Amino acid sequence: MREAITPQKRVGIALYKLCSSAEDRTVADLFGVGRSTVNTLYRQFCETVVSVLEHEWIKMVTAEEMARHIQEFEAVTSFRQSVGALDGCHFLISPPKEHATDYYN
């Protein structure tokens, strides 16, 4: 039976992958684990961080706040019907269950 991967090593693998552009193969060789293990640990780490910090850092805005943001963003950028822009990155969101159809990810 294989030895369990320590929490420190799990976090190290995930942080290394997050902070570098290294391929899974390279990270696997550096940490002495398999490529699929790197991918699994990376996903588990990210899911855990999101589940713990999501409610603290991500806030759903009210309709009034959204209208204000839309006006402010349009005044600065001349983009209509936009709440804002994020550096071209795609962020997965978990929409509220009661309004899930209002969100496109």
Secondary structure blueprint with pairings:
Layout: H1 7-19, H2 24-31, H3 35-57, H4 63-77
Helix pairs in contact: 1-2, 1-3, 2-3
Describe the structure.
By secondary structure, this protein is mainly alpha-helical. The protein has 2 domains: 7-56; 63-95, no CATH class. It contains 4 helices and no strands. The protein has helices at residues 7-19, 24-31, 35-57, 63-77. The radius of gyration is 19 Å and the shape is elongated. The mean pLDDT is 90.
| Unreliable residue runs | none
As a percent range, the share of helical residues equals 55-70%
- The dominant shape is elongated
Tally the helices: 4
Number of strands: 0
Q: Which series of helices and strands comes N to C? A: HHHH
Q: Mind describing the biggest β-sheet?
A: none
Which percent band covers the strand fraction?
A: under 5%
Class from helix and strand fractions: mainly alpha
Number of domain units = 2
End-to-end Cα distance? 41 Å
Radius of gyration, in Å, reads 19 Å
User: Whole-number average pLDDT?
Assistant: 90
